[in-house]
Amino acid sequence: MDWAEQQAGPLRLTVIICAYTLDRWQAILAAVASLRGQTRTPDELILVSDHNPELLARAAQQFPDVVCIPNEEAQGLSGARNTGVRRATGDVVAFLDDDAAAAPDWAERLLESYADPSVIGVGGGVDPAWQAPRPSWFPDEFLWVVGCSYAGQPGVRTEARNPIGANMSFRRAVFTQVGGFDSTMGRLGEDASGCEETEFAIRAHRLRPGTRIVLDPAARCSHLVTDERVTRRYFRRRCVAEGRSKALLSRLAGAGPALSSERAYLRRTIPAGVARGLGDLARGDVTGAGRAAALVEGVVLTAGSYLLTLVRSPSSPRA
Q1: Quick one: pLDDT band at residue 319, thresholds 50, 70, 90?
Q2: Which residue has the higher pLDDT, 21 or 313?
Q3: How far is the C-alpha of 48 from the C-alpha of 30, rounded, in Å?
């Protein structure tokens, strides 16, 4: 399909929320409310319940204007997203996490970039909504641990390898051409794994040469950071899971594409963050040492998990 064919009229927008637990019910209410209050109203809202009949029944009763459906695939975020995409009718399909709330102009900002026919995907900025005091040791460079935008990402609209999963969109026709999210990747309940959106973006680029994915930080949402996610234990668990996910991604997509952004992050962002933390310490801010130490620990845990996963289950990457 030629993307230019979609430019004949206004693009229709479908927004998908995937949910799996009633423990997040208040957050789900806030997510749906944020979508109803957009400056550019989405044409379709879909809520996918990930194998939770009670959640599905409550959502269907609470949201008469939302298409509420069960995950038709194996349990997990990838299957839930794929189910939503199959039901979607919009030209653009956007995904908002069930514990995120979109800024009022979020939909409008996302759609702006699709005026360029070469753009197949657009992601936005994700701000942390701390439900507990942010630890003084938590570095900005590792906000990806809690699913948010982090130091080192561009502050202006630019081309990117992949968007952050909590706030992303793609042309629906892309899914028809390249398939859905890989069900061997992605979160399952409270599991901290991920990278399914990265694998999908890399696959889309390969099958549609010359296309672009754009990061527009102005298309913002806030993402809840709950009490359990501000602990050192969660920080470490998430780093280990990220390394494991990146190893799987490397086997599926090849280490070059899988780690292209991470190499620049390790070369520039991490050293700058460590230097900044130590500089803060030298100026009398003792918390700077904690941030520098967390940066080093996070890199060691993530890289160690990546290497250990490759050693334990070696496999040839896709060409």
Answers
A1: very low
A2: 21
A3: 16
Within a 10 A sphere around the Cβ of 123, how many other Cβ atoms?
28
> What domains are there in the chain, each with its CATH number?
3-231 (3.90.550.10)
Note the pLDDT tens digit of each residue in 15-64: 999 999 999 999 999 999 999 999 999 999 999 999 999 999 999 999 99
**CA distances for 201 relative to 150, 175, 247, 313, angstroms:** 19, 11, 16, 24
Q: Are 214 and 123 within 8 A, CB to CB?
A: yes
Sign of CA dihedral 195, 199, 202, 205: negative
Q: Say what the pLDDT of residue 7 is.
A: 53
Q: Cα angle vertex 236, ends 231, 240, to 5°?
A: 150
In the predicted model, what is the mean pLDDT of the chain? 91
Question: What element of type H or E holds 219?
Answer: strand 212-225
Distance CA 314, CA 294 (A): 29
Q: Write the CB contacts of 259 (distance below 8 Å, at least 6 apart in sequence).
A: 246, 250
Which pairing describes strands 119-130 and 167-171: parallel, antiparallel, or unpaired?
Answer: antiparallel
